[in-house]
Amino acid sequence: MQEGVTQSLELAKENGVTLDFSDESIQEVEKLLAECHREYKKARSEEGFHGLALMFGAYIGEVIRQKGFGGTWARNHPDMGEDSFPFRWRGGDLFLYAWCAKRIFDGDGDNVAFKYKALVLDKLGQGA
Q1: In the sheet where 92-94 sits, what is the strand order?
Q2: Is the dihedral of CA 28, 32, 35, 36 positive or negative?
Q3: What is the pLDDT averaged over residues 47-66?
Q4: Are the C-beta atoms of 61 and 126 separated by less than 8 Å?
Q5: What are the E-state strand segments in the chain?
Q6: Distance between CA 105 and CA 102 in Å, rounded?
Q7: What is the pTM of this model?
Q8: Model confidence at 127, in pLDDT bands (50, 70, 90)?
């Protein structure tokens, strides 16, 4: 997952976006995923987009970890299956890869900044 974080930082920089591991940077991830969605709609092929979803999911997990709230990655989940990449955090699982994949493939109804606020910040009592 660390490689995914590095790749997401590089891709963001190539697109003129700075990801600084802040809560606010999740909105920048949302913008990048919105662009991925536009490109997916043009391409009509999932090729390469799952990798992007994994990269940005890894970045979101690292934002949580760098806040000092821990969390660990697994590859598989007993209910969600193989290669679902659950992020185990505070007694539950966040499916950050799935958040990003759904945003890319399904569009703005799956806004990752909203999910981050609702499922991370609000749980920590930090939602605005």
Answers
A1: 72-73, 87-89, 92-94
A2: negative
A3: 95
A4: no
A5: 72-73, 87-89, 92-94
A6: 5
A7: 0.93
A8: low
